[in-house]
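So, can you check these tokens?
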Amino acid sequence: MINNGAVREIGVSNCSKQPWEVYMSSNNIYYVYAYLRNKNSKTANVGTPYYIGLGSKKRAWQKHKNVTVPDDNNIVILFSGLDWYQAHDLEVRMIRWYGRKDLSTGILINRTNGGEGTRGYSHTQLTKDKISKAHKGRPGRIPTAEQRQRMSDSHKGLGKGKKISDEQKRQIGLANSYPRSDETKKRMSESAKMRPSPAKGRKMSDEQKQKLSIANRGKKQSDETKQKRSLALKGRPGRKQSDDTKRKISETLRNRGETHIR
């Protein structure tokens, strides 16, 4: 059990120093503290702890989320002069000793098992209901048209005129070159098929066409690339080309120094 008298004799209430300064006299700056009940309740009697925590400096006297900080007379330091690992282990041990109300194992309102992070955290039923209600009707979190417009506006102009160095390009390439399983590739393919092409219905200006023409002039495709394109286009309805289109393609390829075989 907690020895309230022994703890308060350290000087929390009868000292010229601030309460937290009493425990900052060494390199081991951490302590484990408890908040005590100031009256009897259905859970436990007056003087018993309702919250266990660890901290340094002013932590025990600062505002806590979802925890009422009592007056100085009901804040007690259980262990002081600790390093982080000692404080971590003692906090976990004390919470386990007194038990948690939310798990029906004891009298503490702690919502984690103690130590670093939120290990063992348990949401209240009210919180669970709020989270559930907030996510209902949002399948796949698809943004609305208004949200999409806001996102589009926020990204316009980003990186405009900014050139990426060769090293940055290499790092981006390495980051995107991780191996994907066949199942992942299949899902990505199916997802892409469901999305319309961003270029669908978009017409290029004569200037854009000219730039593309200059950029692709003199480029030769490997036999492997030609074979892949041929296989990809076979059996796709609606892709029949007129004689005029075929003639233009033939002339373009001839200008590139390639022999177009049909």
Q: What stands out?
A: The first strand starts at residue 30 and ends at 36. The chain is about 40% helix and 10% strand. The beta strands are 30-36, 49-55, 75-82. The first helix runs from residue 4 to 8.
